[in-house]
Structures are given as C-alpha cells and as structure tokens.
Amino acid sequence: MWVYDKKTEYPINIKRPDPRMAKLILTQYGGPNGELAASLRYLSQRYAMPNKESKAILTDIGTEELAHFEMVGAMVTQLVKDVPPQELERMGFGPVYAIHGKGVYPSDSNGVPFTAAYIESMSDPIANLNEDLAAEQKARATYEFLINMADDPDVIDPLRFLREREIVHYQRFGEALRIVYEAMRRKKMYYKPANVMGMAENKDMDNKMNIMPNPMDANPVSPINIHNIPGPIMPEVKPDKKK
Amino acid sequence: MDGKNELLEQIRALDFALIDLNLFLDAHPSDENALKDFKMLAETRQKLHKQFTEKYGPLRMIQGATDDCWLWVNDPWPWDTMRWEELKGGMANVGLRQENRVPDKY
Amino acid sequence: MDKLQLTTIYTGNSCTGDAIIIPAMPINPEYATAYIRYQTYGKTFSPEEGLKQGTIFPELRDYWVN
User: Fold this and answer.
1) Which of A22, A42, A73, A210 lies 20 to 30 Å (CA to CA) from residue B94?
2) Helices (H), ranges, A46-124
C-alpha cells in the first residue's frame, strides 16, 4: 500500500505564471511519455515478475513516478494560478481552459486524454523490462524538449531534476534485466553424450554446434570461468548413460 | 515559521538520498557499503522528522492527530506556494500589469 | 573498467540461497540480449548536492546542455 509524504520530492515554487509552459508540460502529466503512464506501467507489471529484485525495482520506481506525477501537476497548477482568462487564451491555454478551466486534467499537450494504450504489461519479464527501458528514454527526451522551450529557472530546475531521474531509472531497469538474464535464465548448455550410436568424434561439428565437453570428464572446461569466478549455477543435466 | 523551511529542505534532501539508495539497494541487496550509508541516513532522517512533526505539524497522516484538532488537513499542501500577491502585497500585482507580463515568446 | 567489478545476487530471501555473481559487463555476451553495465558502489554526493544534481551517484550524472 502507499504512504503519502506531505511534500514534493523536489521543491516546486514557480513565482511567475506561464500558461504557455503549462500547456506544454501537461504532456508529462497525462501524455504518452508522462509520469502517470510510467507509474501505471511499472505498478501493473510488477505482479507478473518472477524474481524479487524485479518486483522491488518496479514497485519502488512506480512509487517514485507517482511522486513525479504530483510534481508535474503542481507545476501546471502553479503556472496558471491567478492568470486572467484573456491572458490564458493569449498564451495558448484557451482550449484547455474552455473544457477544464484551470483544473489539472490528465491529457497530453494536445488535449488528448490519457489512455492505458500508452502502456503494456505482460507476463514476460524481458518484454516488460525492455519496454520500461524505452519508456525511460522517451521520458528523458521529452524533458529535454520541454527544457528547450522553457526560460524560467523555477521551471527548468524541476524539469532537469526529472530528466536526471529518468536516466537513473534506466540504469535500474537495465540492472533488473541483467538479473533476469543472469540469475533467472540459466545458460543452456549442450552436453555431448558419450559416444552416441557409435558415431566417430567430429571435433569440427562439435565446435560449430557449441557442444560442451561431457561433465563426467575429468577436467570440465567452462568457457565463462576464465577469471575463476564462482560462476552461475549450472542446471542439473544428467548426461545420457547410453553406450 | 523561521526554521520550518530549512528543516523541511533538510528532510527533503535526506528523503531523496534514501530514495536513490533504495533503488540502488534493490539491484544490489548485499552491498555492505550502501547498506551502511542507508542506515546512517535513515537514522538522521528519523530524528529530523520527529523534530519537524513536533514543531510544525505532521508530514504523514499517522502523526495527524492532536488532542483537539486533526492537523493533517492544514494548509499549505505541497503544491501551494507564495505568489506575487503575497510577496508584493495585493491581487492587483498579478495579471495584465506590464512588469508582470510573461514575455512574448513567439 | 580497470578491475573486475562484481555484484552478488542471492536466489533466496535475506541474502541466503545460491549466490549468483553478476560482473559489470558479461564476459561472454549472448546474441539477441541487451546488457546494461552493472553499477558498483563508489563515492556519493551529499544529500543536498544529490537533490540538486538529480542523483547521489556521480557516475550516473548526465550533463546535458540545451
């Protein structure tokens, strides 16, 4: 469950209203690369993840994205606070004001309402995590586009903070993917059965087919262990005892 | 209200460091140096949180009650902020006055 | 990367069970597999500086100028 801390993750204190930026920043509230999409994606994907580290990473990053969702909403509401309607319309916020007034509504900066079509949640951890990696890069790029259009340090500082968080999240999802590949998915090893059906040894064919020497051999060679690290645990494959 | 903002900013910074370390530890659960730093930051944070709640009111709903009043609902909420009218005095300062206009960007 | 950087992940709860060693980058990378370099713990920014920078880890800091 969730506990609410009555403060934003990064201080949002915008002193100069700017309806133009309010409309643009709205895309990170309810748009395709925005924080609502991110948190719903991660919090939904975590149920089907097979390992505890992935569950933790998705839960904690999903929670942080909710905090970012709050930050973006706070920015939008501060950017239109106390601005007269004529000024709102002059700065491009008119269409939003006509429907929602100065309310903060989850949509992108074109007014397209939020949809779960922006996210995917599968029971395949590799598909999920690769989607998450892509989502973080899209969010990072969107923050760069927004920073390019902003001029107020009170607006740019939180946007820069949010952009850096996306990079850190990318790193964590990358590590989650490494755990899935290296700790969850054991490497498939093909063991050469001893003298199958009386066939002569064919070393060229063995190399081409990536056949491992029989673990019953006296000195098994593992290609991974060149630094003598205690390696990944090999699956229990009992070679056939056919002679 | 003097020390409130300073203390809040200290707690905010500590909470942020804890969040970042939390994400690191999720991917490195047995990293002893990271665990040591996390415990140290968490301890400091607990102390400051207690100080803040006692002096300025609750940051979490679980500390919201006093004997005669539910302080949790109090203003300001995180998105509320001091605005021009509070800084310069009066609603007349916000709006169409020339020096407060948002500069034309197009 | 000068020295071999390793992280240990345990298959069981509370750092028990089998120990899986994850190097910063794999020694024998697979095909059709994406690898992100695994971070190891080093120096961190102070909490205040970290909040300003967006992360407490200097190596994850991406300096972008618009």
Assistant:
1) A73
2) 52-79, 85-90, 94-100
